[in-house]
Amino acid sequence: AERIAQANGAPVFVSSHLHERSFGDLRGSRYDELGFDPMAADYCPPNGESWLVFEARVAQAFAEMVERSKACQRSLVVVSHGLVIGRILHRHIIAANGVALPTHLGNTAVTIFDAKPPHHASLVGCMAHLEGAILDDGSGLSGF
Which pTM was predicted? Predict the structure, then answer.
């Protein structure tokens, strides 16, 4: 967010509603070492957020984004995390012009949608800005 703001002179606003889902005591653990699926619909991590609480917070984040966009003279740019963005897409955004909503979003993916209802998406999960980038973490998704 700071780099985007530096590039165009826009202010940065921080919202706790845009934080990734809290996995509480599991934070820092590797999924493959847990022995269970921490993403299961009925699982609530110890000292973390249930899906129900997480989704309520993301709904607040979306409402906050829509409200903030009303005061913007230009486009509002929101920087967040994969689970947050995925929930916003699947709960609040309508794919337009044949744009499909993905099941997975790559790191640094760009999504563009209308600030006004019915919130049509014109671009979802685009990673074209990474073409030719050298990625060194082996995932193909990050490494800058």
Answer: 0.81
**Per residue in 93-123, is it b (16+ CB within 10 Å) or e — as a string?**
beeeeebeebeebbbebebebeeeeebebee
Taking alpha carbons only, the member of 87, 85, 96 closest to residue 119 is 96
Amino acid at 32: D
The answer on pLDDT for 65 being more than 60 is yes
Rounded to whole angstroms, how far apart are CA atoms 41 and 97?
31
Instruction: Indicate the range of 99-103, 124-128, 134-138 predicted with least confidence.
Output: 134-138
Which secondary structure element, helix H or strand E, spans residue 35, and what is its range? Answer: none
